Amino acid sequence: MATNEIRKEYTNGELTIVWKPGKCIHAGICVQKLPEVYDPNGKPWIQPENATTEKLKSQITQCPSGALSYYMNTD
Fold first, then answer.
1. pLDDT at residue 4 in the model
2. Collapsing DSSP states into helix, strand and coil, what is residue 18?
3. How far apart are CA 13 and CA 8, in angstroms?
4. Domain total for the chain?
């Protein structure tokens, strides 16, 4: 799989964050807006359980590269 095709998913149960590292331009908006969720030195680096779904949605829509997206989980 090429780097631009890698896709990682992280969920808080209600929402799943999709990260595509090949699209990431490292603008850092995610880390600035929600440092409790996005920790570049952490493992895993995205911990969506550390913020509300509404805060996550708001931050993800500000990602300038489109490397972050989300979908709502259904029952």
1. 60
2. strand
3. 15
4. 1
Q: What is the domain range of residue 14?
A: 3-72
CATH number of domain containing 40: 3.30.70.20
Q: pLDDT at position 5, please?
A: 85
Q: Could you identify the residue written with the tokens 């300038």?
A: 64
Q: Please name the amino acid found at residue 65.
A: S
The reported pLDDT for the residue numbered 3 is 56
Query: Which residues pair with residue 2 across a beta bridge?
Result: none
Under 8 Å between Cβ of 21 and 6: yes
Q: Which residues contact 58 (CB under 8 A, 6 or more apart)?
A: 33
Q: What do you get for the CA distance between the two ends of the chain, in Å?
A: 31
pLDDT confidence of residue 64 = 96
pLDDT, averaged per 10 consecutive residues of the chain (75 residues), comes to 80 97 94 96 96 97 96 88
